[in-house]
Write a structure and sequence with these properties.
single chain, mainly beta, 5% helix, 6-stranded antiparallel beta sheet, globular, DUF642 domain-containing protein, Jelly Rolls, secreted
């Protein structure tokens, strides 16, 4: 083979290897369907060493849970496939993932609380980490998809999922399943929108063939937002939804404000003091049986607009606009829901109004 052809071949293989390594989806054995050998288990407790679960390194009291397994009177259900893991006191699972230095990524994982009421989860990819409380149940199934994001500081990221709890029962800890990765591309403002990612098209990995959406935790627990350009400025999470499973006003993604005034999204935009702007957006419902009177409160600096929406829980939306004069070079745009709402077909599942297609434009003087 000629040297030039050999070089091209090597470059092609290297390029193919890199692109193959960064396909969005489950990480290696991310659904834990590949389990320990029978000799590496004592009941459900993994006893076969730190590498007993393929592709993962474990530490502490880790259990390999089969769907339908009982714990006292509680039936443990696995959301995807047949197996999950449970992290006991100070237990952790770890995996090294090939990434591209300098790029942003989002981790999505399924989490369920078991017997402890104040369970938390520590997710870290050095030097970033976040402690995410999971005592609030957003769905009646007990499982919630949670997103966490990070900036790659090298070409290999070490993902650690750790239970920092200390319970009387060492087996009392969160269940983990379906760990997935998605590359995030930071959006930029355009001449059609001063806000970035106003349609929420850029966001965390959403599991296909599921109707859960993804919870984006508050920014106080996450140094990088899984919803690029937006912050979750509240005590509770917001839900990221897709058009394959929900009603979305525009495009393929939107945000559902699921926890009343405790669930808010915000972005700071560059503005010119004294100039007039219009903030336009869509308010609707996700077609998930979230019925009743809803109000979305929109803020632009010191100006506010309350948009009522009567939901029948079957999809639909209306548009609204807030005209304001900027008073500073930075204007905070924020949305929240006035009320808490529960699904009419499931009083254990939180829901709320949907916000989408958010645009901020300046008005020319007549």
């Amino acid at each position: 083979m000629k040297p030039t052809l050999m070089l091209l071949s090597v470059l092609f293989c290297a390029t193919f290897h890199v692109s193959f390594s960064f396909i969005d989806g489950l990480v290696a054995n991310g659904n834990f369907e590949l389990g320990p050998k029978p000799w590496a288990l004592n009941g459900s407790v993994v006893t076969g060493g730190s590498h007993a679960i393929p592709e993962w390194e474990i530490s502490g009291f880790v259990e390999y849970i089969k769907s339908g397994q009982k714990q006292g009177d509680m039936l443990l259900v696995v959301p995807e496939g047949a197996f999950a893991v449970r992290l006991g006191n100070e237990a952790s699972i770890k995996q090294r993932i090939n990434v591209i230095k300098g790029m942003y990524y989002s981790i999505t994982l399924m989490v369920a609380r078991t017997c402890a009421q104040e369970e938390r989860l520590n997710i870290s990819i050095a030097p970033d980490f976040g402690v995410i409380p999971i005592q609030t149940l957003y769905t009646s199934s007990g499982w919630d998809p949670i997103a966490y994001s990070f900036k790659a500081e090298s070409n290999v990221a070490e993902l650690v999922i750790h239970n920092p709890g200390v319970e009387e029962d060492p087996a009392c800890g969160p269940l983990i399943d379906s760990v997935a990765l998605r590359t995030l591309y930071p959006p930029r403002p355009t001449n059609k929108n001063i806000l970035k990612n106003g349609g929420f098209e850029e966001g965390p990995y959403v599991f296909p063939n599921t109707s859960w959406g993804v919870l984006i935790p508050p920014n106080i627990e996450d140094s990088h937002s899984p919803l690029p350009a937006w912050m979750v400025e509240s005590l509770k999470a917001v839900r990221y939804i897709d058009s394959a499973h929900f009603s979305v006003p525009q495009g393929t993604r939107a945000v559902e404000l699921v926890a009343g005034k405790e669930s808010a999204i915000a972005q700071v935009a560059r503005t010119v003091p004294g100039k007039t702007y219009v903030l336009s957006f869509a308010v609707g419902d996700a077609s998930n049986s979230c019925e009743g009177s809803m109000i979305v409160e929109a803020y632009a600096g010191k100006d506010t607009l309350k948009v009522p929406y009567e939901s029948k829980g079957k999809g639909g939306f209306k548009r609204a606009a807030l005209k304001f004069v900027a008073v500073s070079p930075r204007t905070r745009v924020m949305f929240l829901s006035t009320f808490y709402t529960m699904r009419s077909d499931d009083f254990s599942s939180l829901c709320g109004p949907v916000v989408d297609d958010v645009k901020l434009l300046s008005l020319r003087r007549p």
